[in-house]
Amino acid sequence: MLPLSALAQRAPRPTFQVVPLGVNGGITEDNLSAYLLAPVNSTSYISLDAGTLRAGIERAIVAKTFEVPAEVVQRRYIKAYFISHPHLDHLAGLLLNAPDDTAKTIYAQPSCLETIQTHYFNWASWPNFGDVGAAPALKKYHYQRLTPSTETPVTGTNMSVRVFPLSHGKPYESAAFLVRSQEAYVLYLGDTGADAVERTDKLHYLWQEVAPLLKAHKLKGIFIEASYPNEQPESQLFGHLTPRLLLQELTNLGQLSGAEALRNLPVIITHLKLTGDNKARIQQQLQQANTLGLKLIFPEQGQRLLL
What we know:
With 307 residues, the chain is α/β, with parallel strands linked by helices.
């Protein structure tokens, strides 16, 4: 048997750190989709969605994940926001905390930015903290359109991001973000339905693009949703996944990368809807059907993860 020191040397060193500021898909307004991501040993984070910010930061401080005031995390550590789609459970934290924030860039697909500009930062719903739109534009946030197939450097960090459109129940569009730090990657998916249910090939295209990274052990983790248990009728999924559909999609990824590449891949399960005993059922259904050998992670608000 190898000594523990030798085993530790064989274990891959983490490349990314994640601080979940919000992990749920509804009901609890103080714990909605938002994940801070940065390279290990860096305090230059991006926020992947922003459903909850301040409450999540304060939870992270209680957990000793951050040992600086919440204002420092919000104003200095968070360098940019990546919004997968403009539903409030992915955006409310950004809107509500805008008055106390510092100048940053909001990265998103054009349709998402248009909704933020037209329906939220419009002086009717909320002051216009953007740099375009209803006068006067306060110019705190710069809107940066993301174009599929183009890798975009993230201002204030050493990371870059590529966007992939997702289907979130017609006519809604969501997005996945493939984040790169040097030669390591993390894939974050916003809300999405399965290709078979949505009648699209958006996830298939995404899997084709990331399969080579997975096969080369460069993909350090996947954030993907499981909103409902398997009992939810397909007609009432509203552009979301169940454990069965999630594992079916990752099986499709494994067919492209090789099944062995999936083994021990960290898969962070996001956006659980907490109605009734949904959370327990979703977790149980995923664990029982995980024949792919995935490392399933159910994140806790404020608790740091290393990938």
